[in-house]
Amino acid sequence: MSNLETAPEEVVCEQGRVPAGPEMLVPRDVPLGGPRAMTVRRTLPQRARSLIGAWCFLDHYGPDAVGASGGMSVPRHPHTGLQTVSWLFTGEVEHRDSAGFHAIVRPGELNLMTAGRGISHSEFSTGDTVTLHGAQLWTALPDAARHAEPGFEHYRPEPVRGDGWELRVFLGSLGGDASPVRTHTPLLGAEILLAAGSTLELDLDPAFEHGILLDAGELRLDGHAVPRDHLAYLPTGSMRARLDAGAADVRALLIGGEPLGEQIVMWWNFVGRSHDEVATYRAQWQAEIGAEPPAPGDASGPPRFGSFPAGQPAPLPAPALPNVRLRPRG
């Protein structure tokens, strides 16, 4: 998914302070496009915390009536230096990218796109989708992998069930299950379902930071109430987590990973390491789609963001860069 804000702010991604207990990250509403467009609830990045492991972006949306909101309608747009993770609860989304991959994103199935040095893709709700509900996440690629060739992986995890609970582990390992999907830093991603009144105790990797996003129901994490749509953060050193469902069934997403330990700058749909690098990505995208002339001195060569099939909707132009230099920190 693209970040469709017309004036995206600079995001300085750095490790935040270590809280005494679970830190509740409050979502903010972000409209994706015009007045009828979908609105998402964004919990990463934000001023309080930019990263959880290598996870650098989390949009949570729906359940949306597609007939009213228009659903997901994101024409071709670019990415660099990241992996996108699509996870749906309801509905379907058609994915198409410049590396030649075409897939339907369905509930309970992971679709992971690696941007590497550069990719472009589009995402549209399918015609028979009535309700759209899910999450879009990004992970920042480490320096050693961020210039790799783009790619795409699909995986449908089998559920792991216990007394009143169910896990679907789509990245990393948890609860005795492991995903075969390759990541470039140690990561964890799982959907958790809890029946009302049930309890689940999880063993955690103490080298990981973790975040738990509550999608539905009533949840207490280690005795602390988690508000709906909030992302509860646990720092490194946490070895166990207790999840208690209240009077309503719970659905949550668990993410985690080792701290990235690198300085990154994220602006619009690019992850880079400096202002000049991000500005170059923007200029190359604008030139490739014919929105702006190539920068003087640009060497000719294959397009960074690849080619797209004919007959697709017009690509998204990049917004203007801010009037200040983007600053990496860490």
TrEMBL record:
Residue span(s) of domain Pirin C-terminal: 191-287
Q: Which Gene3D superfamilies match?
A: Jelly Rolls (2.60.120.10)
Name the Pfam families on file.
Pirin, Pirin_C
Q: Where is this region: Disordered?
A: 289-330
Pirin N-terminal domain sequence ranges? 39-138
Query: Which residue ranges have biased composition labelled Low complexity?
Result: 321-330
Q: Which domain of life is it from?
A: Bacteria
PANTHER family, alphabetized = PIRIN (PTHR13903:SF8), PIRIN-RELATED (PTHR13903)
What family is it from? Belongs to the pirin family.
Write down what this protein is called: Pirin family protein
Q: Which organism is it from?
A: Arthrobacter halodurans
